[in-house]
User: Fold this.
Amino acid sequence: MGEPKIAMEGVAKAFGTMQVLDGVNLTIEPGESVAIIGQSGSGKSVTLKCILGLLEPDRGSIKVDGAEIVGLRGKSLDRMRAKFGMLFQGSALFDSLPVWRNVTFGLTQGRQIGGNRLRAIAEENLERVGLDKRILNLRPSELSGGMQKRVALARAIAPRPEIIFFDEPTTGLDPIRADVINDLIVSLVEDLGVTALTITHDMASARKIAHRVAMLYQGKIVWKGPRDRLYDSGNPYVDQFVQGRAEGPIQ
Assistant:
C-alpha cells in the first residue's frame, strides 16, 4: 500500500512515575479513518499530543509520510504541522472573534490575505458543514453547541489539511446532534480524501466514522480491527469496554 500516513512504533511516555504510554504501535494508511478508544486516562490524548509534537515521547518513533517527527523543532515542526487539521474537544473557538475569523484563523498565520477573500473562504467551508452565511458575523457565544462544533469543523478543514485529528468530536452533544456531526465527519473525510485519527469513548461515533478501531489500555494497543468487529472482537478488554460492564479484566 506504500508508505503509511502515520506510523507509531514503540512509543512510550511517562510523567514522573506514571507510565502513560508503554510501547504504542499503530499505523494509519493514506485516506484511512482510525479511531482510538479507551477509558479516561488511558493515554488517548497523550498519544494525540505526541503526534502533534506538543509532547515528546521518551522513546519510540512517530513518522508522518515516512519522515520522523520525534525531535523536530522550529520551522521543521511547523512544516509538518501544516499537514494537520484539528477539531478540539469543546470546539475551542475564540469568543472574541466573529465566526468568519474563527473559521479562517489558521489561514492568517504569517500570510497576508484580504478580508473579502477570507470571508469567501469562511462561507465556502461553513456551507460544507451545513451552516448558512448569515452566521458569519455572529460570535461563538450566540451559537448552539452543535453549531459551534460545526464551525470548529469548518475551521479544521479550511486549510485543506492532509490529516485531521478529532478529539472527542461528540462530547457534550445530544445523540441526534452527535449523529449529525458523525455524518459530517464521514462525508468530509470521503470528499476531501484526508486521513483521519479520532480519539473517543463514544462507541456510536467510533463505529460510524472509523474504518478501523484500536483500543488503548495501560499504555498499549490491546486490540485493533475493522469497526464491524467492535462488538464481536473476541477480546475481553474490548468486550468489557464497549458493553460497559463493571466486571472484567479492566479494573
In short: The chain is about 35% helix and 25% strand.
